[in-house]
Amino acid sequence: KITVIGSINMDIVTKSSIIPKVGETVMGDSFFTIPGGKGANQAVAAARLGADVTLIGCVGEDAFGKELTEHLGKQGIMIDNVKPVTHSSTGIASITLSDGDNSIIVVPGANYEVTPEVVKEHEHIIEESDVVLLQLEIPLESVIEAVNLAKKHHKTVILNPAPIQPLPKELLQQVDYLTPNEHEQQLLLSANDLIDEELEQIKTKCIVTQGSKGVTIYKNEEKLISGFKVEAIDTTGAGDSFNGALAVSLSNGASLEDACQFANAVGALSVTKLGAQSGMPTIQEVEAFLSA
Ligand code: ADP
């Protein structure tokens, strides 16, 4: 059983050949909405792989909130703990695409209503989990509370430190696994008041994702677990797919190396299709890929 505590967003995308200047109105080419948010994405990745997944998060009492909650339910995720809140809008990313350029505004909205109190109310769910999976798109105090509760009940905790921000060393010391990409790992290990010994200890928890190369783990010694060769179409959501898959495999009792191998396969398959959530493979697709 996997519990994800994290963000739920709607990506609102406009495509336009001209980027409007301040005060200007232009005609766009197309418009669409895509479900996102790292919490929701990772929950979808795990659910596609057949895991029992509970998502704890908040949406606004608005159309996007309703649509996203229904959508997540249809993916097989337990959504009883996705709470509609009255005083914030559903989290959104407003994305403008123009000839390969983009500009993005993120409004976290209801994701910031996932307070430490909300996390505390769900202690019984954390207690029933095998793995608790976290990211950094809800308030940091809430991530800290979630880790405290999970460790109180001796649960495995994976923290995907994205979007990266300075983190207290107590948090890094408590979690079982950290899943930064290369860029995030540099910031994670440099921005701290860590003495060498602490740095080494935290490094052993790192599973550093490196795109097509695969991942590096540092458990006993530095070791690259090679990625799979695929034709990449869209790499959005590769990290989220990897994290969801890692949680599934670890909750099934796999060794760290085997879990990384499985998650590499899931990450690789996810980049062969368009979209973050829509590109995430099912367990049948992963099994077929691995036995091919
Ligand atoms: P992020 O999207 O967070 O930057 P990465 O790009 O490191 O994360 O991708 C996460 C994981 O997804 C990688 O460790 C790898 O397993 C898989 N992956 C990503 N891109 C590719 C690719 N082009 N080919 C094969 N696997 C990939």
UniProtKB/TrEMBL annotation:
Organism domain of life: Bacteria
Intracellular or extracellular location(s): Cytoplasm
Primary residence: cytoplasm
Binding site for ATP: 181, 209-214, 239-240, 264
GO function terms (MF aspect): ATP binding; metal ion binding; ribokinase activity
Keywords: ATP-binding, Carbohydrate metabolism, Cytoplasm, Kinase, Magnesium, Metal-binding, Nucleotide-binding, Potassium, Transferase
This protein's pathway: Carbohydrate metabolism; D-ribose degradation; D-ribose 5-phosphate from beta-D-ribopyranose: step 2/2
Domain Carbohydrate kinase PfkB: 1-282
SUPFAM superfamilies membership: Ribokinase-like (SSF53613)
Catalytic activity: D-ribose + ATP = D-ribose 5-phosphate + ADP + H(+)
Obligatory cofactor(s): Mg(2+)
List of catalytic residues: 240 (proton acceptor)
InterPro entries: Carboh/pur_kinase_PfkB_CS, PfkB_dom, Ribo/fructo_kinase, Ribokinase, Ribokinase-like
Summary of activators and inhibitors of this protein: Activated by a monovalent cation that binds near, but not in, the active site. The most likely occupant of the site in vivo is potassium. Ion binding induces a conformational change that may alter substrate affinity.
Cofactor note text: Requires a divalent cation, most likely magnesium in vivo, as an electrophilic catalyst to aid phosphoryl group transfer. It is the chelate of the metal and the nucleotide that is the actual substrate.
Pfam assignment, any one: PfkB
Family the UniProt entry places it in: Belongs to the carbohydrate kinase pfkB family. Belongs to the carbohydrate kinase PfkB family. Ribokinase subfamily.
Reported function: Catalyzes the phosphorylation of ribose at O-5 in a reaction requiring ATP and magnesium. The resulting D-ribose-5-phosphate can then be used either for sythesis of nucleotides, histidine, and tryptophan, or as a component of the pentose phosphate pathway.
Summary of subunit composition and partner proteins: Homodimer.
Name the record gives this protein: Ribokinase
Organism: Metabacillus sediminilitoris
Classification of source organism: Bacteria, Bacillati, Bacillota, Bacilli, Bacillales
